[in-house]
Amino acid sequence: MEVGFLGLGIMGKAMAINLLRNGFMVTVWNRTLSKCDELVEEGASVGETPAAVVKKCKYTVAMLSDPKAALSVVFDKDGVLDQICEGKGYIDMSTVDADTSSKISEAITKKGGRFLEAPVSGSKKPAEDGQLIILAAGEKAIYDEVIPAFDVLGKKSFFLGEVGNGARMKLVVNMVMGSMMNALSEGLTLADKSGLSQQTLLDVMDLGAIANPMFRLKGPAMIKGSYPPAFPLKHQQKDMRLALALGDENAVSMPIAAASNEAFKKARSLGLGDLDFSAVHEVFKCAGGSNEA
Amino acid sequence: MEVGFLGLGIMGKAMAINLLRNGFMVTVWNRTLSKCDELVEEGASVGETPAAVVKKCKYTVAMLSDPKAALSVVFDKDGVLDQICEGKGYIDMSTVDADTSSKISEAITKKGGRFLEAPVSGSKKPAEDGQLIILAAGEKAIYDEVIPAFDVLGKKSFFLGEVGNGARMKLVVNMVMGSMMNALSEGLTLADKSGLSQQTLLDVMDLGAIANPMFRLKGPAMIKGSYPPAFPLKHQQKDMRLALALGDENAVSMPIAAASNEAFKKARSLGLGDLDFSAVHEVFKCAGGSNEA
Amino acid sequence: MEVGFLGLGIMGKAMAINLLRNGFMVTVWNRTLSKCDELVEEGASVGETPAAVVKKCKYTVAMLSDPKAALSVVFDKDGVLDQICEGKGYIDMSTVDADTSSKISEAITKKGGRFLEAPVSGSKKPAEDGQLIILAAGEKAIYDEVIPAFDVLGKKSFFLGEVGNGARMKLVVNMVMGSMMNALSEGLTLADKSGLSQQTLLDVMDLGAIANPMFRLKGPAMIKGSYPPAFPLKHQQKDMRLALALGDENAVSMPIAAASNEAFKKARSLGLGDLDFSAVHEVFKCAGGSNEA
Amino acid sequence: MEVGFLGLGIMGKAMAINLLRNGFMVTVWNRTLSKCDELVEEGASVGETPAAVVKKCKYTVAMLSDPKAALSVVFDKDGVLDQICEGKGYIDMSTVDADTSSKISEAITKKGGRFLEAPVSGSKKPAEDGQLIILAAGEKAIYDEVIPAFDVLGKKSFFLGEVGNGARMKLVVNMVMGSMMNALSEGLTLADKSGLSQQTLLDVMDLGAIANPMFRLKGPAMIKGSYPPAFPLKHQQKDMRLALALGDENAVSMPIAAASNEAFKKARSLGLGDLDFSAVHEVFKCAGGSNEA
């Protein structure tokens, strides 16, 4: 099976490599073309532009960093729209808001192309291990056709109905995740300031009803103040913002997500936006302790 | 091994039964004595007062509903203090604040008694299954002696140092749990109002980094609006309050816990205090939708 | 002086009447044209379309309900852009976000027109009394020319520099106002549930450092549960949202505004969006009291 | 009229001086007795202990920093209880929680003494100017007798019924004030980061519905980062905490106050507890701005 692949950031690179290693022929493109070199070593071809990739491949997958990049790759000069046509499918796996997804869907289908949005849950490690969760929505037929690729990229895929639902589901999951990260950080901080061992807190939580892989994975690193970017904080904050905007549309009041979003914004203002989203811990723990009279 | 057991609420009853079924001789007491009948059928003896239980047993375990009850059982007429003396141990497994625990500890040790606080993490089901997590603090020697009982009641026990640390650790864990419950409720509500399947949201989350037993257990019931009390909401709110008070002492700012606490208070004001703490979901989902011009 | 006036909602109508009664010749337009009748009785002319008004008048003022309406009046068929040209000025007094204002500004100036944004602080009553506060930004020369009109509409006008700054200042003021309204509502509710007189609370506050006209005006009505719409809640919530978005752009963490926004959203979900923004009080006071065992 | 006066902190000193300058004979006491010197220069006598003051005076006023100090002055050795008896009145003007006030009231009345709680609204400046607002509760007869002193100390006094209501009213007012301070700080910060003049924001707000003395007084100093302690931040945070506890008792959900309380706690953790409560501004403004890739 031949697929195009647009976008070779942290996630996209890992995903494209997985496709290559599992027998797919992959033509890659990235804004900074030099990033394609490593993929070429793995056997990829390179397309000079998004349009060139679409021209060559029946299916093109995109994995871009934000709505702006997702729109740009489609609508700009030499973009996807230049070559998309009847018989060709475009699968956008970027995390974008439903509006962006709809805009892209309309443009693609107007040209006769086929569209599937398929944002993923999971960051660097699951991407590398082919263990992503894929939240697809749009044309059911193309979903069925690209299942072989999804089976390589993820451990499970869902088809969620109309375009926009993949984006929405992703935002809801990331919103819950963002609030949980803040809850963890508050817990670690309170333990520490109360004279308790943070590691014991992690051990206790890991045995009970709230045990979860994220606490297990991120907790020890947070204690050490280490935040290598698996899922950059600025992207987590963007997702919180988009989830809150979705709530706004539907008059859903979400005070915990709102408070968490403000903590992520505080982290951004402290210059932590490019670190892992667990770096929000610096917001909670930064204080030096009171010295009141 | 012979142990006394004070308090046969949801948790206490399950724990006392486990001790009986694992070969312990147990003398039980409960404020409403009729609640002892079921335990008698399992082979328990009954003590007329806390003092009578302590008089009879070398080790007495208590599992009471709140700080007030925990203090009352110790300090009231015919209470634990009447009979505690050198050689006798008192193990308070109630969830109370560190101050309450310290007060009890001082009174017991002043009489020559030995004290261990040992609050647990886990509610009805883990109590029944002997799968609690035990957070002990106080006298290390008595901790070592009662390990056989802890092995029956829980799957793991921790010794955390000075009296108060068990209480504090428990509060921190429950605070994180309370914030996670609110995050889950917001997620379910947002999914529903955005046209997504709540069950699919649970399925997606259960495959990823934030998968945890609580979401798996409580989520489906919350969708149905079913909240049989495993851990009553008013107790969860009490723990949030105590955790925030601990944060206050140590100047720890915890905006997510604070927002979660206000949601639990709202739930109490709606008359949901005696339901399971997952009933906070009613606060988030109750709205009927806007009908703006 | 002759001015056009687009938009005869609660605010616009009061403002247009003030201009008429102070000797201005006013040509009005409203989407529902029948709303113009009352103005005609006061001496106004009617324009069939925004374009017709602009064609007739050197200066055209707009007072529209939201960014969508503000854009529509300019960009739609028979809109302002059809007739704006060199020598003509367009003064948009609607409350919109800076992006919307910039879009309008660019379109107007591209056609050779002159642009001033001039959102106002103050609702129905100040509009009727000519006591608005005017937050102008854009072309300084046109600001100077329309000062006579501003003197009729408001008690004070500010020139704030580049286009967008008027919108931004308005949002900041309304954000603070929205948080204050929530703080008032919490105070009234706490007083009531604690057995204190809500009216005495208002009296005490009115004598001290936080005494302000809004508490004085809205407080007694809130106690009675009366919320006649001076500033509709859905518009206040929109402004909170836009202010938070402005904070998002600049990485400013604003937890109090965020919590207040969620309360306004809750009010919307309860169907209160068309009432006065003080109706957020129903969110705080609605609870019936706990009936815990 | 002769009165005793216990406690010569910022507030107490100003109040005692006012009494002296208005013809009252005042016997003062302070934990650090040297603080009495300045009052002696104004004509005061000094009592060696609270008991000595009460022995000498028919009415004794107390103005202490917190519940602990208020209790200590009454219950400790050589405290008020040693000498209070039939015919003597004790007027506690400290800001304490209702429980503390009730404890003191019971002890005083049990000895035959008469009790009035009378916390005040207003800080240093109003105390100096005799412009406090006095929130009295307890025995109505003693309230009527000490009106001449209240007329010197304040511009208005309220009698609010049973003991505890003065404390509760004070907390509610200070809670609203604390939330407003946070709202102001968010507004100033957002203005600044959005390229607007903070002083113009203050000017605009001062012309509209939310104009209030606190914004007028504190705003310009906050812009400069100047926070001379009129009302220390740690006391404001204590009042927020007590108000939230009052809400907890009555199942009142107050998310804005809760978020504000966390901001004040953050300020304490930054070592700002002894500065004016407006120093919470440092929490909001401290960020340096994001430097995201």
3D structure, described in words:
The structure is a homotetramer of 293-residue chains. The mean pLDDT of chain A is 94. In chain A, helix 10 packs antiparallel against helix 11 (213-224). In chain A, strands 1, 2, 3, 4, 5, 6, 7, 8 and 9 form a nine-stranded mixed β-sheet that branches. Chain A has helices at residues 10-21, 37-41, 50-56, 67-75, 98-110, 124-128, 140-145, 147-153, 165-193, 198-206, 213-224, 233-249, 255-269, 281-285, and strands at residues 2-6, 25-29, 45-46, 59-62, 89-92, 114-117, 120-121, 132-138, 154-159. By secondary structure, chain A is an alpha/beta fold. The first copy, chain A, folds into two domains: 2-162, 3-Layer(aba) Sandwich (Rossmann fold), CATH 3.40.50.720; 168-285, N-(1-d-carboxylethyl)-l-norvaline Dehydrogenase, domain 2. In chain A, helix 1 links the parallel strand 1 and strand 2 (25-29). Chain A starts with a strand and ends in an 8-residue tail after the last helix. Chain A contains 14 helices and nine strands. At the A-B interface, strand 9, helix 9, helix 10, helix 11 and helix 12 of A face strand 9, helix 8, helix 9, helix 10 and helix 11 of B.
How would you summarize the topology of this molecule?
Four copies of one chain form a homotetramer.
Chain A lengths: L1 E5 L3 H12 L3 E5 L7 H5 L3 E2 L3 H7 L2 E4 L4 H9 L13 E4 L5 H13 L3 E4 L2 E2 L2 H5 L3 E7 L1 H6 L1 H7 E6 L5 H29 L4 H9 L6 H12 L8 H17 L5 H15 L11 H5 L8
Helix pairs in contact in A: 4-5, 9-11, 9-12, 9-13, 10-11, 12-13
